[in-house]
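thought: fold this chain, then report.
action: predict
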Amino acid sequence: CVSYALFNFHDAAVKLLVEGDIPVFEVLFTRSLAILIGCILIGGGRAHIARTIASPVMKPMVLRSFLLLGAWLCYYSAARYLPLGQLMTLYYAAPIAATLLAVPILKETVPPIRWVAILTGFAGVAAASGITRLEVSGAALLALTAAVLWASATIYLRRTAMAEKTIVQMTITNAMFVIAMTAATAFFWTTPSWSQMGLLLGTAVFGGLAQYALFESIRRAPVSVLAPFEYSALVWAFLLGYVIWGDTPTTNVVIGALMIASAGLIIVLSERRAWKKEKAQQS
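observation:
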């Protein structure tokens, strides 16, 4: 939940920067470069770099980085053409996709109660967004592609999370972003103002902390358990939209937020019940 809250502050800063004519390539490059430098300094400098290069999860993390990069590009390309509600509804198919992929790839067992939570959360997203009909278009397909790419990246992270330290995985991910965005940033570079410099720093701080929280959560719980909590991001999205852009939540938003909170509560209660049952059997 902390991770998704921080990602919303990160996305709000990105939106402000893009609205101020700072290219997305530049935002991703500077954010990732700052996080990369921070990881190297915290990790111990040259020794950390050597340990990262020799990491056994290098190849799958590189693949995950490209999946995330594709998700970024698809999402922000679709955002130019789709209303915010439709965009978010399509993108939040990611938790369902992640749960579906977790079954054949990670061999996770998804009990019915988790499906109830996921579908409840998705219904809450639809209600809060006010969507009654989704039209298939090129932009809609881009948003759905972003959701599938993000879900696939989450699955890969679960496969590597237990084999390497979080800071090493963050180093690999952000190094790949820097390498991939260098050429585009050099071509589209726009000199930021002092306020935009502050926002760029904010994307690095919020993004870095959000990545760390996400990586650590995936080390501790199955993807299908964590997936419904991604819907909590919508609450923060509408809150920040109101505070920063003056977007007033409607009745649908309130109803949707309650449904999203219910999805997370269902998971918490079901997991607590399962834990108590397991403890009772052990004793």
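thought: worth noting. The two ends are 32 Å apart (CA to CA).
final: tokens above.
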